[in-house]
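Entry 14. Two folds queued back to back today. First construct below, sequence then structure tokens.
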Amino acid sequence: KLSITSVCGSRTTSLIRRENFEKLESYIPRISPLVEDTVLYMSEVLSADKAVLVEGANAAMLDIDFGTYPYVTSSNCTVGGVCTGLGIPPSKVDEVIGVVRRTLHV
């Protein structure tokens, strides 16, 4: 049986007030069909030689490692984020397409 403890671990229960805990548990039946182990899923898809399209919405200068600190996001939003965020090995990245927007400041 799924529960907040089985999904999030026992430490989480001390951080959630009892009334919120019960409300969150009531969402499990509706949400659990939508939850997937993405690293395992990506591994299975790539093993089956299926194509994967990954989209990143942030600019490179917002990348946690290569961006202009302190104006960065909390993750890797350059192409390396595919490896760190989804668990896709670099050897499986065949093509990268970059889209650039130019703005004029007058």
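Second construct, same run, same settings:
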Amino acid sequence: LSRTVENLARSRATLQALVKLLDDVTNMVIADHIQHEVVKAVQFIDQSSSQLEAGFLTNAYTLSQKALVASEKAFFDPSMLALLYFPEDSKYAIYVPLFIPMAAPVVSSLFQAIKLYKQLRSARQQQGAEKLKTS
């Protein structure tokens, strides 16, 4: 009985820690297999609690073990751990040096296009003013 209750408490604590982690790390993406493990853990916790209340201690213990395994699989999944070590600030440090060399010609071309547009607009205005003077 005590191991069952301990397993259920640890499973709940692990899932709560996972929720807190996901709230703290906003850019973390949850894979489908992790979601599946979380759903399984919650279902096993519910089933184990029901079996415990009904007095089926062996079934409750087995389900509590499954809940603990599923919750820890979800929390300690390698794909989630890798995302913890790649914070948001690091993205800028990596991508900015890559995009600046590509952005420089684009910005330069944009300035040249604006300059050409202004020249064409002023030439049209001058032609329009000359037509008005001659008429």
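Quick look at the second one. The CA atoms of residues 19 and 75 lie 10 Å apart. The chain has a mean pLDDT of 85.
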